[in-house]
Fold this protein.
Amino acid sequence: MSILRRALPAGALAAAVAVAVSACTAPGEPADGSADDTVAAASAFLAEYVDDGRVVRTDQGGDTVSEGQAYGLLLAVAADDEPVFDRIWEWTTENLQRDDGLLAWQWQDGAVVDDQPASDADLDAARALVLAGDAFDRDDLREQGIALGASLLDRMTAETALGRILLPGPWAEASPHAYNPSYASPAAYEVLAQASGDERWNELAAGSRAATDALLEANPLPTNWATIGADGSVAIAGSAGGGGEPGYGYDAARTPIRYAESCDPADRALAGRIATALPDSATLAAELDSGAGSITTDQHPVAYAARAAALAADGRADDALADVQRMSDTAASTPTYYGAAWNALAVAMLNDDVLGGCPPLRDAGAGAAPAPAGDAGTATGAAAGLQNPVAPRQASTARPVHISIPAIGVDSGLIGLGLGGDGWIESPQDYDDIGWYEDGVLPGEIGPAVIAGHVDSPTGPAVFYDLPELATGDTVSIRRADGTTADFVVTGLQTVEKDTFPTESVYAPTPTPELRLVTCAGAWDSTTGHYVDNLVVTAVAA
């Protein structure tokens, strides 16, 4: 789909060439490739969705749920941000915490509107409090986490023939129990067991494993809801009340993520089993029916995170990393509270042990050949956690000298671009030149290399005029000074406002070599002499 492009009137440009040129490419310096992936993703979520301690579902009416507060607490730990953690927990205790210590589920317009607790939120919050106690050397937080966990064990677990299971809430205490497979979190159980010494956490881990195993025997794909009888009988369900058609969606997708981060091989094996039940197409629908058929055309980061987790648990690291990238691309192109949360949580859970689990992608990549000293493997996001599945021979420290984009007829040399005094990447002075941001990532190295060009000129189209016509699957080749070539495949196009350019998501560290092709887009603002938008094309290593 073409975006609005407009050749500048000669008079307008003649009066403001310098301004228009610098404004015609990407603002800001790319995120430092050496930055920690986990901290970057977690910090981005906290900056966007936390308002004075309240995690706001900005795309869902501006309300707050206990789940969101718990996600914020976990991500504040992942970001090593004690002040933000304290603000989130203070807001939670003042507004959501009940007399029994559990958390009311929903708050809106200044008051609690649903005071029922949700066990996944309470479990995540208890885990976060214990982890924060250790990370920040705070006995008060640790003890509050243990206390919250004890209340959960008392009020929201049940004994069955399969063992102790986690109920979604106190309302589900009657058999057959409503059961949400994605609420179980083996890593959280272990964190709380170690902190409290309460044997019920180990019972809950064993019972949850048995329940998940039984449910996967009943249906290879976990469903959002199920029922478990006191006698150990299991059945998939369409809703918490049992009605409707069972499906795999935004809830169920969390199941393989939570089991893949477990340190217990038996739990990981359950996550790995799910990989064989999921579709293997590059594009994955956000919601599937119980037989893995698509029931929507929507895509969502949590769906890709789930498949990445399952694939990682199944030992398929390369395929998993491809889905991690799809997760990141989807989160950037369609930003939502839930998508951003699970993008950041998945980076931490699959890639880093900061949340107390055993990250399957880090372990899966541990045997990979190390990158040579001085190349991107030691200076980018790969070294911060996600292991690089690309053979070191693909990396090159040679400068890029030529770019070819056959689909739009681009065949051009490359010049170097620096950062202007206004904080924007400089634009090429010649409208037919294409530039590479030379203080950033070398094309073909790990991370996002940035290439920019003009969309038009005072006399007509410029070199990147047809950039919006690129489609998924089109190729980009970069020839380097040493004669080697780095090949890329286009995965998406994104139009973003310059005034709110999403630097963190566009330039965030990536586990494999990528490109960001950038030009101007949108309407021409005659009052400022700038285009109002940028077009960003994302391409990944072929």
